[in-house]
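#onboarding

Welcome to the new folks! Below is a worked example of what a typical request in this channel looks like: someone posts a single protein sequence, and someone else replies with the predicted structure as tokens. Don't worry about understanding the tokens yet, we'll cover that in week two.

Example request:
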Amino acid sequence: MKKSITPGQIRAGNRQLIYSYIYSHPAVSQQDLAYQLRLSRPTVSSSLAEMEELGMIEKSGQVSSEFVGRKAAAYSIINTYRIAVGVHIHAHHITLSAVNLYGEIIENDHRDLDFINDETCAERICDCVKDFIASTGYPDERILGVSIVLPGLVSPDGTLVTYGKILDCTGLKIEAFSRHLKWHCRFIHDASSAALSELWNSDRYPDSIYLMLSNHFGAAAIVGGKILYGRHGHAATYEHIRLQKTGGETCYCGRKGCAETLLSVQSLLKGFPEDLDTFFANVRAGKKEEAKRWKKYLEDLAHMIRIIHLSTDTDYFLSGDLAPYITQMDVKLLYKLIEGSIPFPEENDYLHVGSMPVSGISIGGALIMVKNFLNHAM
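Example response:
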């Protein structure tokens, strides 16, 4: 027998509708909520009273009206009602970020820490997380959860690292962290986290490919505004496409010639005793060796994009550590290089340089917690 919807479920559904509308339309009146959502005034009034008592929303001034008389109260959400935390694990340090319900950064931090896949290291990371959360000044009950971001493939439910060669953490379970933390925890792949950060700031491209041009090369596919994980959890692992058919450097996967060995920042700077700022200052100054290396990098990147583009005609974001250094001249060269190997004409309108901040990967981890809350706020 089909179960009927209970009055409690109806009330919860109405509250979710009202909260979502206020989130998207700050400073809205009770009357407008009732009109826009086709709900009765008593239903809206009781829901607002309940959410106000819980600390989810607040009166934020008054709504101006053309009519004479008392102005209606304007409601907005309290953006710090819940806080989300992302922790990006690198080989030798961790980056921590806390954001509010609008994805605005509350606090960032960087801690030196050599990652080792053992219980002691996991506990040290958790101690850093607890210290970081305490530094925000928000009580424990406001924390939505903690996303552990790392360079490895994770299970769709975020509980297991299924492939983690870079940090040697294949098989790592989320329990290694959640047993030390009182909040909900989950893993997320670093490229997926970077893509979420970009998507949050630019939702005009719900179907797109994000290429993470950072210390390691990675990618993520966005379909319908959501990360595509694939049937086996490894969608868009373009870093293991072999761009060099013979010879080449050995990838961490054990094969030679993978895109990782050509498109990572490590590969770009190999043999150059300088950081990205110095490297690109020399590129723009016309220094022969750096300019030659950068041109070769763009040729390899164009080759990578061409391979994907022939099967996935969509938008592409060039994000990660290299994004701030990519100029419009570089993008024009990429189009020219791609065009030379595409058999049909098309407009040069599909490459976009990412704009996420330096801590964007840890922020993306926090944002997945925020998105989940907003989808199930009540």
